[in-house]
Amino acid sequence: MTARASLKLNTENMIxxxxxxxxxxxFNKPARRNAVSLDMWAAIPEIIDxxxxxxAVRVVVLKGAGDQAFVSGADISEFEAQRASGEGNRNYxxxxxxxxxxxxxxxxxxxxxxxxxxxGGGMGIALECDLRIASESARFGxxxxxxxxxxxxxxxxxxxxxxxxxxxxxxxxxxxxxxxAEALTMGLVNRVVPVAExxxxxxxxxxxxxxxxxxxxxxxxxxxxxxxxxxDYDAALCARLVTACFESEDYIEGxxxxxxxxxxxxxxx
Length: 269
Fold this sequence. Notes:
By secondary structure, the protein is an alpha/beta fold.
């Protein structure tokens, strides 16, 4: 295993490490099943910025510390201090919304590596990633209807885009915990593997992605994001991204490597 380089953050509840081509974002509050607090939301944009600026990082992987949870939701214990007033609520929403937007718009592929509980806001974070790889012990759920709270349209839309309307209703109507096998059937996760193989499998997936052309991957990611907007998507932007790929050094390298029957060495330019 290669040596890891860590980013110094303003909170100990998040860890950011670079290990080869992988940027690891680790939710580090295992005693509370990695429930997300305000300081953790605030650290996400900083971590993404750091990973995006490092050309060595080809894939960003999110995981939870320990073996019990990916993220078990929001840290309710801090709500009395952080969300007891209108101003506090607005600040909390601003910080968490900024973190979510930054994760969704990350220019590099993102993978949620899910072990154990992935509940409520944890599912929201996982859905903001491009891919989700889960262990057989992973459990998913959104308990909104057991708490009597309304769930905002952006969050519902995010889930519905992945699993469709019917499964979205089932998840919310029942508020129950779904197994990894059920999540795979829904399309909520891309792959399910044994617990002992989760990190090795994820690393192998990252290696496959890291070998491919970064500009092509970024173009696909941004194009999918545009197409999800419906008929009013920015077709001109999508065309410019494709043109940039054809004009890149990586396209030349890809052609030459194919003709020379060798692995290409893409540089993202």
